[in-house]
Automatic annotation (TrEMBL), chains B, C:
Transmembrane segments: none annotated. This is Molybdate transport system ATP-binding protein. Pfam families: ABC_tran, TOBE. The lineage of its organism: Bacteria, Bacillati, Actinomycetota, Actinomycetes, Jatrophihabitantales. Keywords: ATP-binding, Molybdenum, Nucleotide-binding, Transport. GO terms for biological process: molybdate ion transport. InterPro entries: AAA+_ATPase, ABC_SmlMolc_Importer, ABC_transporter-like_ATP-bd, ABC_transporter-like_CS, Mo/tungstate-bd_C_term_dom, Mop_domain, P-loop_NTPase, Transp-assoc_OB_typ1. GO terms for molecular function: ATP binding; ATP hydrolysis activity. The keyword ATP-binding applies. Signal peptide: none annotated. Residues 286-350 form the Mop domain. Residues 3-236 form the ABC transporter domain.
From TrEMBL, chains D, E:
It comes from Jatrophihabitans endophyticus. GO terms for molecular function: molybdate ion transmembrane transporter activity. Its main location: membrane. Coiled coil: none annotated. It is a multi-pass membrane protein. One of its GO terms (cellular component) is plasma membrane. This is Molybdenum transport system permease.
Amino acid sequence: GCGSDSDDAGSSPSATTTGKPTGSITVFAAASLTEAFGTIKKQVEAEYPGTTVNLQLGASSDLATQITQGKPADVFASASTKNMTSVTDAKDADKPRNFVSNTLEIATPPKNPATITTLADLAKPGVKVAVCDAAVPCGAVAKTVLANAKLTVKPAASLQDVKSTLAVVESGEADAGLVYVTDVRAAGSKVHGVEIADDVNASTTYPIATLTHAKNKPLAKAFVQYVLSAPGQQVLRSDGFSAP
Amino acid sequence: MTLRVDGHVRRGGFELRVDVAADPGEVVAVLGPNGAGKSTLLRVVAGLQPLDGGTVRVGSTVVDDIAGGVYLPPQRRRIGVVFQDHRLFAHLRVVDNVAFGPRSRGVGRSAARSTATDWLARLSLDELGRRYPRQLSGGQAQRVALARALACDPAVLLLDEPLAALDVQTRAEVQGELREHLGAFAGPTLLVTHDPIEALLLATRIVVLERGGVVQQGTPAEITGRPLTPYVARLVGMNLYEGTASAGVVAITGGGSLVAPAAPDGAVLAALRPSAITVHGAAPGPASARNRWRATVAALAPLGDRVRVTTVGELAATVDVTAAAVAELGLAPGREVWLSAKATDVSAYPAPSR
Amino acid sequence: MTLRVDGHVRRGGFELRVDVAADPGEVVAVLGPNGAGKSTLLRVVAGLQPLDGGTVRVGSTVVDDIAGGVYLPPQRRRIGVVFQDHRLFAHLRVVDNVAFGPRSRGVGRSAARSTATDWLARLSLDELGRRYPRQLSGGQAQRVALARALACDPAVLLLDEPLAALDVQTRAEVQGELREHLGAFAGPTLLVTHDPIEALLLATRIVVLERGGVVQQGTPAEITGRPLTPYVARLVGMNLYEGTASAGVVAITGGGSLVAPAAPDGAVLAALRPSAITVHGAAPGPASARNRWRATVAALAPLGDRVRVTTVGELAATVDVTAAAVAELGLAPGREVWLSAKATDVSAYPAPSR
Amino acid sequence: MIGTRSRARRAAGTGTPLVVVPPAVLAVLFLLLPTLALVVRVPWSDLGRIYRDQQVWPALRLSLESSLEATAASLVFGVPLAWLLARFRFPGMAVARAIVTIPLVLPPVIGGVALFDAFGRAGIVGGEFRSVFGFDLPFTYPAIVVAQTFVAMPFLVVTVEGAFRIADRGVEEAAATLGASRTRIFLRVTLPLVAPAIVAGAVLCWARALGEFGATLLFGGNSPEVTQTLPTLVLTVFADQPADAPALGLPLIAVALVVLGLLRDRWLRPVAAS
Amino acid sequence: MIGTRSRARRAAGTGTPLVVVPPAVLAVLFLLLPTLALVVRVPWSDLGRIYRDQQVWPALRLSLESSLEATAASLVFGVPLAWLLARFRFPGMAVARAIVTIPLVLPPVIGGVALFDAFGRAGIVGGEFRSVFGFDLPFTYPAIVVAQTFVAMPFLVVTVEGAFRIADRGVEEAAATLGASRTRIFLRVTLPLVAPAIVAGAVLCWARALGEFGATLLFGGNSPEVTQTLPTLVLTVFADQPADAPALGLPLIAVALVVLGLLRDRWLRPVAAS
Ligand SMILES: Nc1ncnc2c1ncn2[C@@H]1O[C@H](COP(=O)(O)OP(=O)(O)OP(=O)(O)O)[C@@H](O)[C@H]1O
Ligand SMILES: Nc1ncnc2c1ncn2[C@@H]1O[C@H](COP(=O)(O)OP(=O)(O)OP(=O)(O)O)[C@@H](O)[C@H]1O
Ligand code: MOO
Ligand SMILES: [Mg+2]
Ligand SMILES: [Mg+2]
């Protein structure tokens, strides 16, 4: 149970006398959390009957901008500390906590037409590589990975978030994509994964925080709590995330 | 190359059904009330309106024959057209409007320009060559349209009220020019006009259309001498009466009679020139004029050096008198007068069967 | 309410500078060659073309005076206009075109419609009420435009070649209708026309514009009797010669002379009616006709019941003769003839100073 | 038989110039092919599931509503603006005209940024907006309409302005002499005269608003059932289930076929044509 | 003095109807404000850094080049198509017309998906494309031009089609009687007649192509210096450094002012006006 410290009890239908979270919240989450948070959403709703969790997924940077521009939300789960920092700097989020981290993997179409077996294969001429835009977390990590491997790769496509990157690979328009291990796992048979050697791989840390102007602080806190809790962490691990 | 149109075409609720021919060098004036189908006839000849049935021939060439599966588009007919609404190209200077035809027929740029300049000079339009159509007055625009059609060296010429917008002086000049050109022109010409004098001046034959059909055709003399419809009578300035003749006397439909010794028995038309009628202040004695009737002056209008008197009564008539007569008889609207006409001036001829 | 325009206006390279007035009930015909500024004058009166200087008055009201800072827009002038290019509203049926004016002036829908229907009936357009302008022939459209202007009950009426597109019969009918209406009309009317007969029939006074200025104005009789410019002479069908008179003899500029006892000494114009000239096959003896000269027939044209002969020579003249004379004298282009005219038929008067 | 042949002959002489046929056919193929491919790729058997799972119906409703409202707003404000631009003369008019048509070339994403700068929380009139309307504009339904109007209205303005320019002034003069006030001339003569252009402009404007994506995404926020339109939903679906994306094009294609197919021929035929 | 007053009086009578002024002024304000706000928010002192850091110049060059090429392609193929749609009559023409104008309402992202389905590696003519041109279309410079043409051409087609419809056929008939072939009539009479509409349509088309974002992003791939146009760059910058984003609008605003300001008044004045 959590005490209500919501700013305006009158406008918060969840602030019941029992202190048990009710009502609904909106959770802004990085696109890479789509599957894991989908499961956690259901579990939280089951844990607190009568509550609803609305997930809004997108590039962490877009979500950060929306929050600072005043779009109402209760929780923010970012795929990088950078985007979380921009929100906390704007005093729009409470103190964030890191909950998982994520590393990259190469995704290719199931038949792997360009026969990608190592990271270095991405630099071969004629190989069409899709990455995330450098402005979004997965793109930043991809940059680091390629730098670690001292590879010069000219991506054919730089897409707005990790899911779009994956989609381009899935549809076969790109020969390979740099995405999170979690995405490769979530895509199942729709893509083929090629692991990246640990010595060059890099990771990004995912922070989560309740938002300053959350309408439903109790449920928001409960959600964050659940993500950090053992059952939540188990969902994330089983989807391929690592410890923060 | 004789032009011959023998066919019919519908346009909305209107149907044109004609058989009209024009011989080489012949100028056929097409007259008729508004909406009679004059412009439609010209469109058919030009190829802008394919016939629904029948044929159009130019010389021995069939240019339109739906049954025979023949249809030559306007481009291949070498037919010059001056449209009622001139239709100049707004984006081209006057000289380029005129050069458009030669250019379209493969003449080089500078040759076409000089042809155009020649034609502009012939129609006294030299100064307007560099203007755009929007900078022309209505009359100037019409003259340019004329130059444009003539510059094409057409085999057949179609003119749809080409001079309607011109002032008298310009009209007289352009009429002269046109007479000259039409005289030198080897092909047939159809000229639509509302101006009977223009028709008489320029045409060797006249075709009168009414409600989509030909009601009368012939030389100017035939038309002026024997108008067959009230429209034609009005056109040529004649008084026309319908009636039945028997033994030299025509009983006019609607009352009254006229003595006309040469009248053939049966349904006739009787025509009478306005200047053949004499006006009297009182009942004339039994003089040589065998036709006399009472009438009331309805209107007076000066007409050149004469005065045109409109009268109403049993036999409504238009009469031309001298100004002196008006003063002498004190003619004014409402005045009761007697009119007389010599029997030999009444021209009676069989009415056309409708 | 007298209409008076006294001012000037530029339009591109053209300048109109006039002083024209029309009294209540008076119909002033405005004639002039193409581009003379007739339409521009009407635009000024209607308020569509503000003056660059001077005033327009309707009765005691100044409606345009740039110096006085007065300018009434067309809406507030109650001036009915029939435009040269009719300008019907393409999206409205004929009846709604005519009802547009009353509606604009606050009349209810059904009242305006019935006014419109009345006017359509008066101009014999009843059957066309439900048509759209594109479904009308040129003449029908012009008549609808007339009905639309009249339905507005205007204080001043401006007609820019209102009957130009009408066929003779319709024109005569509409002329009659127009005469009636103009007769009953309390306000002044300006009527632009190229047709001198129309001007004579409908107008009580004539103003002739050339190159943006008034060259002559007066009653039809004054204009026809004493044309001051070649254009006017041609308009009224007179032969006009410029010359210098001395002791009853006019020495024509360009050669030849005419005897005219009443001629004032100095620069004069000499006018001669075509019907006052006699044609002779050989040199006439010293008869009463004191003017005789040689000429060559250039062209012949039938004109109603007479024939118009155009001659060239020292004194070029147009002569009207009977068909009988043509046959008798064997007149044909190229024929050498003698012309004679009585001295009393030569009307000589001082030439206007330019 | 004869009837058909005769109809075919009507346009003869001024009929189809052969030079237009090859490029026109290529254009048709080029424009048709992607749509066709999309339809071919629609997972027809999954259609029911997709439309249930994805928030298609609310997004479609929102798209239609907001685009129609944006079109209405564009008509009310844009047609008068077009008139002024076409007819009113003062020095600097060209600059004024360029300024108001800037949204035309502004990429919609920048348009979204600009809308934030103007009407956002911290926008230059954001405070005024809040005090007048009582709420912040971004991420609300009105924000979508505003974004779509901003992006789409210039299409209407440019189309209609051209028509006002070439509209025959003669009939307006005639109306003035018949006593019609300027307003009446505008409403009863000029507007009907340019009606075909207004319909065409409205269709363009509506289509642009319906497809609007960049500014809507940014300024609207893509919140399901509140600010998620079909175009922004597509982005979400494409990222999530790329194979489902073609299915989302179907409702818009259907709407387009109905609206463009039915409306165009009836309304784009100008009154003045013979 | 007098000159000015007299000029003001010219349009009197058929001058500005008051009813248009308030909505027009509101429209100006509404359209102007965001642009103004954008300019106000540009971090002027950082401009040098931003333009150096971000790939602004290559993206701008790419945007201008590709949008002009897309406009040129639209003119070459779209004008003949517009002619056919306006003039050619056969049963089902309305459907054909609706079909080719579908891209108008297709959200750009779906447009991108559709382009993949048609011309992508696995697209229905992707194999043919590869065998003819020797490369895969997606993620190349031609892909951007194709995407922009697909999205923008219908704007040109609709605008020009309307003009072809209302163009005066009388002068075409006159040209036919003067011996001009159909092709010559089309090129020398009809095209000049509708030139103002073609210019207006080309401006709309160019603007739409310049701002194109969704389809370009997906089908082009947003690869810096190869397929990254200014609109797609803006999205990246907005995600990364939102404060820098307004600065990226400046070059386009400048281009818009130059193109719309200079070109419009000169070229949109129809030849037929008095
Ligand atoms: N496109 C059309 N659709 C239906 N009817 C038409 C069309 N064009 C003309 N008409 C009708 O055809 C008839 C003949 O028209 P046409 O233009 O040939 O007459 P006209 O003799 O030239 O008349 P005007 O002297 O007024 O020019 C008219 O009754 C007119 O109303
Ligand atoms: N918009 C314009 N710009 C420049 N000049 C013009 C304009 N409109 C008319 N003009 C010129 O003004 C002069 C007078 O034109 P207006 O229309 O008044 O002549 P008009 O006497 O009515 O001629 P018409 O008998 O041919 O109708 C003409 O020389 C014409 O070329
Ligand atoms: O913010 Mo993401 O999950 O790297 O697209
Ligand atoms: Mg006609
Ligand atoms: Mg005029």
